[in-house]
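User: Sequence in, structure out. Go.
Assistant: Echoing your sequence, followed by the structure tokens.
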Amino acid sequence: MPSAMWDSLTNWMQNFGPMDPTTIKLLLTLGVLIAIMIGHFLYMRIVNRKVDDVTLLYRWRRFGTYLFAGLAIVLLLSIWLSNSTINIGQFLGLVSAGLAIAMSDTVGNLTGWLFIILRRPFEVGQRIEIDGLVGDVIDIRLFQFSVIEIGGGRVGAEQSTGRIVHVPNGTVLRQKLSNFEVGFGYIWDEIPMLVTFESDWEKARDIITEILNHHAESFSTEAENELRRAARRFMIFAGKLTPIVYTSIADSGVLLTMRFMAKPRTLRGIHQKISEDILREFAKHDDIDFAYPSIRYYDNQREGKPGARAPLQEFPVNLKRSDQN
């Protein structure tokens, strides 16, 4: 508001009696704060009535908070800096220097907030990983943002723990940040399956491959299309995106590892469907069995392959005859 407007209000208030300039500024400050609070309250009521979508409602609320907070700062500065020998540039310079020394963390968080708002490394509703924390962003404020924790050693398969974690905004400037949904929204996942050495591992591999293709092949097609779009912005080299089953030898059996691509939020459901189908199919075959930790005594002479059996060792027994007189 122009200083002339404050001068007019000051002259009007002087009609009620002589007042000190500081008192007048305090009264004007109180009036501005009350007006801002009333305006913010009315704005929130209108937004809550008119907007039903949760995402849009959050954005309009956050916009109103920033709008009225910025308006309050501008009005209060114009009140207290009117008729002052210090101009706004000098005032902001002094304030900035004091903040940089006394509140470095706060300044860092404000800078991080500006980075988040302008650069948009993530938005509300997106899944991110920062400083070892994986979660869904639910709020972005002036000094910190909040996420609902995912995993964290309590639950698996990219599901929420229910805990809300508040992260200082300055963290985005100091730690590496991964966004699960910007650019390329798919991740690789693996499910290991161990069968015994005596099982028909080739049949087991074919069964698992068929089940894996049934549940995950559609994600590969979607991921390939999305990868082409992401390659326009980033230097991404596409490899093999279709599901595959790798075979390797483990200590207690043949390890069949399913590798496939899917969206992070769908992993728990895919794991369940694939595991249940494998259990049903393996139950139909008596030559396939799961391997699990157990103790077994292996008799190479009876169980080993004929050409790989150890030679039978004969231990001579020396009998000494002693003559007694």
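User: And one key feature?
Assistant: The chain is about 45% helix and 15% strand.
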